Amino acid sequence: MSSGPLARLGPPLVTFVAGVGLGELAIRALDVSPLILPRPSAVLAAALAESASLLPALAATARAVLVGLALSSTLGIAAAVALAASPWIQRAFYPYAIFFQIVPIVAIAPLLVIWFGYGSRAVVAAAFVVSVFPVIANTLAGLRSVDPALRDLFRLHRASGLAALWKLRLPWALPYLLTGLRIAAGLAVIGAIVGEFVGGGGLGVIVLGAMRQQRTDLVFAAVAYASGLGLALFAAVGLASRIALRHWHASEGDR
């Protein structure tokens, strides 16, 4: 039986509201300093009071994230297809793709500023670096997991390599690819914020400025905006996955 949006969103919303309420009560009861942990009500007040600066910063961060995610999706799929072309290519180049997963973005963010300059280009590069590997790894796993019987069927009918890629391997890899994009969406937000710490602009600058002013409530408000952006992107990829797969793949069937 298919569940409606309310049935799916209700439990996490109830949990969130209950958690926020308990956090408010606990912070008040323990008299925690607002410099260490502000009350949720204070964070909400800061999010509303500073919306004139937070919303433009959110828009700047969102633009960088979307560009970085688009680049990681396009180049990640192309890289996965190239790696899947032959075992030799995969053995030769896949270890270099792993570099994007293990590289500490905090350490190379200053290098990105040196290479791309201050501003959005460095932020986009940071979002790309941290989000491209999940796309490569998941798409490659999907391309390599095609049913051998179906591959033999395409060979029997003398299908070209391009036809097999377009009609068999990429559709088979689509669930894996969409899973990779879900992961990449959240990582792109993290990469963009770190890039903004050194490259300037967006919510990263708001966080740094609030820290210097000891406005912990504003730091939490900016983080909440960034988290909302990540959740929105995750939900958008999830919706695309459901639309694309619900009629033929068990992972997105009616539940």
Any overview of this molecule?
The protein has 255 residues and is mainly alpha-helical. It has a single domain, classed as MetI-like (MetI-like fold), CATH 1.10.3720.10. It has helices at 5-30, 40-49, 51-84, 87-102, 105-116, 120-144, 148-156, 161-199, 202-212, 216-245.
Number of strands: 0
Portion of residues within helices: over 70%
Report mean pLDDT, rounded to a whole number. 88
Shape, per Cα inertia axes: globular
Most strands sheet? none
Strand content: under 5%
The domain tally reads 1
Unreliable sequence segments: none
SSE run? HHHHHHHHHH
CATH topology heading: MetI-like fold
N- to C-terminal distance: 5 Å
Q: What structural class do helix, strand and pairing data support?
A: mainly alpha
CATH homologous superfamily title: MetI-like
Radius of gyration: 22 Å
Helix run count: 10
Provide a quick synopsis of the model:
By secondary structure, this protein is mainly alpha-helical.
